[in-house]
Amino acid sequence: MKNKEIARIFNEISEYLEMDGVAFKPYAYQKAAMTLENLPGDLDGLYHQGGLKALKKIPGIGESMAQKIEEYLTTGKIRYYEDLKAKMPINLEEIVGVEGVGPKKAKVLFEQLGIRTLEELEEAAQAHKIAPLFGFGPKTEENILQGIGFLKTAKGRFLIGDILPLAQEILEKLRGLKEVEQADVAGSLRRRKETIGDVDFLVISNKPEKVMDFFVNLPGVVKVWGHGTTKSSVRLKEGFDMDLRVIPGESYGAALQYFTGSKEHNIALRKIAIEQGYKLSEYGLFQGETPVAAKKEEEVYARLGLAWIPPDLREDRGEIDAALNGKLPDLIGYQDIKGEVHVHSNWNGGQQSIREIAAAAMKMGYEYVGISDHTQFLKIEHGLDEKQLRSRNKEIDEINQELKSAGHKFTVLKGCEANIMGDGSIDILDEVLAEMDFVIAGIHSQFKMDREEMTKRMITAMENPHVDIISHPTGRLLKKREEYDIYLDKILAAAQATKTVLEINAHPERLDLNDLNIHVCKKMGIKMVINTDTHQVDQLRLMPFGIAQARRGWAEKEDIINAWPVKKFLQMLK
Ligand code: DGT
Ligand code: CA
Ligand code: CA
């Protein structure tokens, strides 16, 4: 797929243009990049079928951008971009990837200090060469060092959203081999962690050589770290590693338990085994030399007096005690979601009409979908003002009428994702907010605020009687941006007091709230809603990532309001 490469180049073009203070155009390129990233089809295929004309049909892609896409598809290069890069030969993606460094600052850093790479940026900050620059100062210098530190800790881990589809494809291929009796994913991927170090496959086979040959020769393998009969290890072109282990059938359950981890869970489990006079390893649960449980994972847990623990919970956060005492949560399931309410339509520049969204949501088996277009403050997303929101609501009323006439039991809800301004106020008049079925409020600007101020800002928003839901509450972007600097305990207390629902944003780049925060919310009785934040209708399919996150936070159906029927859902709101 060239889509991602071209999107990356468009993003950089946008940044180069922003450096030079060009008006409007940077936004157009940024927006186009987002569109290309989320395009369901392959640009190459699209172009081969329909040529330049087909490219121009993509929303937000005009003549000149279409030509650039064509140039890339046919020559592998975009001259316009190469020229921009030649003028300022820096690793732009790396440098603006640091929180708080935008294109304009990157330009100053290059012109004044010759900084081209992340490494040079870090050296300069450590040597305090950045603070004296005009428009920077010691606070910015400190933020830069912090931002670089954050990027370093995220290095070497991959978003589950990028890994899971590829791993599932490979798992299916393994399962399709006649030499393979059983195959599973283990490790952090089976636990559905938000970031993945490497992928671990386990297989039962009586012809391990065949399976291993197949594995190390998979398309996309760029390096073979090891090629044995019990274990092989490879790197894929996407940059991550995969291990494959062939396990004897009689100890498969014990191996699956062991290699699923987490390490912390295993250590705690092994302690219980020892207390009970057993020995636990990847080969089985042993009494002396005699294996007493090994074939099935359930048997290992059962023999220790534990209920089987869903992999999502295996982090040594109380799950073993809960399993001992029959107190494991009845986790929300993948089929339990009845609707969702964070979907952007073409009213705010999204690609799909409300009718298309409704059709897609019905196809997913939902009973309702909420349209939550951006509001006026967010210019880049074509945020709606009061008048536009009202016109859009009229369209939703019409669509609901149509659906009813056609005999569908499905409701489109009227909502918005309004902006929380710097002072905590909302960028839409109360009387219009009052006309909505639900109001989401979120922060989309001024991410770096003093902790007191940021906390107050969010609490003020939650105290607004019209604000039902806070979107992506901590603001993190995995591998990109840290959480806001906030007193989360105060914010959660305010959510509890004001009965504000907090979002579990299912987008793999966000997964916000995280598992630990979800767990705290559950204990405090704060309700949550799992939303995909869809800007392109295919993204409704991201829901399972949010469900996995909820499960990792011990959430049950009663904690998640969009696992409820529409009537009860609406009653829960303020
Ligand atoms: P990752 O790959 O960093 O996302 O995380 P995991 O959990 O997949 O870790 P990985 O791939 O190193 O190992 C897979 C599982 O094998 C791990 O979850 C638990 C088990 N394991 C690995 N090393 C150890 C160890 O030293 N002690 C114990 N008890 N278990 C281990
Ligand atoms: Ca792993
Ligand atoms: Ca591994």
Report what the structure shows.
There is one protein chain. With 574 residues, the chain is of the alpha/beta class. The protein folds into four domains: 2-154, DNA polymerase, domain 1, CATH 1.10.150; 158-246, Beta Polymerase, domain 2 (2-Layer Sandwich), CATH 3.30.460.10; 252-324, Beta Polymerase, domain 3, CATH 3.30.210.10; 339-571, Alpha-Beta Barrel (TIM Barrel), CATH 3.20.20. The protein has 24 helices and 17 strands. The chain has a seven-stranded parallel beta sheet with strand order 11-12-13-14-15-16-17, covered by helices on one side. Strands 2-4-7-6-5 form a five-stranded mixed beta sheet, sandwiched between helices. Strands 8-9-10 form a three-stranded antiparallel beta sheet. A hairpin with a 4-residue loop joins β6 (231-236) and β7 (241-246). The longest helix is centred in the last third of the chain and has 20 residues, at 386-405. It starts with a helix and ends with a helix. The model has no long low-confidence stretch (mean pLDDT 94). Bound molecules: 2'-deoxyguanosine-5'-triphosphate and calcium ion (2 copies).
